[in-house]
Amino acid sequence: MKRIHRNLFFIALSAGIVSFTSCKENKETSTETSAETSHEEMEMSHDEEMGEESAMEMSEAEFDDEKVAANYEAYLDLKDALVATDAEAAQTAAKKLSENTEAEIMEVANKIAEASDIEAQRKAFSELTAMMEPVLENAIASGAIYKQFCPMAFEGKGDYWFASSEEINNPYFGDKMLHCGRVEKTIQ
Fold first, then answer.
1. Residue 73 is part of which domain span?
2. Do residues 149 and 185 lie in contact, with contact meaning Cβ atoms separated by under 8 Å?
3. I need a surface site. Which of 16, 46, 156, 170 has the fewest CB within 10 A?
4. What pLDDT, in 10s, does the model give residues 123-163?
5. Entry's InterPro entries (predicted)?
6. pLDDT tens, 47-60?
7. Which helix (H) or strand (E) holds 7?
8. Which of 41, 73, 78, 74 is nearest to 58 (CA)?
9. 3-state class of 151 per DSSP?
C-alpha cells in the first residue's frame, strides 16, 4: 500500500513540475518524442517544419511597396533564426535587412548583424519589431500579419514579434518555450 501511495505521489509531483515549467499562455499541445528518437532526426523534423512555415509565411501578406516586402521577408528570416537559436543565421538575415531599409531600422539590424550572442540579438530584435510595426501597417495590401506576444520574455516584462501565421514560434525563447505566446493583433 505504501508503494502505491509513493508511486502516486511521484506521478503527481512530476505532473506538477511539468505544469509549472511550461508557459501559462501556451494554447498548443506539444507531441512527445520517443526516447529512441535521435537528435539528428529531431533536427531534420524541425528544419522541415521551419521550411514549411517559411513558405507559408512568404505567401500570406502582400505589400504595396516591394522594398517593404523584401524587408518583411528578411524580418521573418531573422525571426526564424532566433526561433532556431541560430546566431549565425540571425546575423545573415539582419545583414540582408540592413541592406534594404531606412536609417533607424538599418542601425538596429546592424546591431543584430554584429552581435554573436543570441541574447543580445533577441534584445535588439525587440527594438526592431517596434520599429517595423508602422512600416508594415502602412504598406500591407492584402493578407494578414499577426502581432504576437510572449508574456515571459525579458524576465516577465513580455515582448512582441510579427508572424505570417497564427502559429506561435517564439523567437525570444526558441526551443525552451517554443509555443509560449499568443496573437495580440491581426494587421490587415
1. 42-187
2. no
3. 156
4. 999 999 999 999 999 999 999 999 999 999 999 999 999 99
5. DUF3347 (IPR021782)
6. 444 444 443 443 47
7. helix 2-21
8. 73
9. coil
For residue 69, what are the contacts with CB-CB under 8 A and spacing of at least 6?
A: 62, 63
On the CB side of 16, how many CA atoms lie within 13 Å of its CA?
6
Q: What would the pLDDT profile of 20-68 be if each residue is shown by its tens digit?
A: 344 544 433 333 333 332 233 333 334 444 444 443 443 479 999 999 9
- Overall domain count for the chain: 1
Domain assignment present for 46: yes
Q: Is 124 exposed, middle or buried (0-12, 13-18, 19+ CB in 10 A)?
A: buried
CA distances from 144 to 59, 60, 61, 79 (A): 10, 6, 5, 17
100: cell is 534594404
Written as nine digits, the cell of 114 is 554584429
Distance CA 123, CA 182 (A): 19
Whether 32 maps to a domain, the answer reads no
Instruction: Report residue 51 as a C-alpha cell.
Output: 521550411
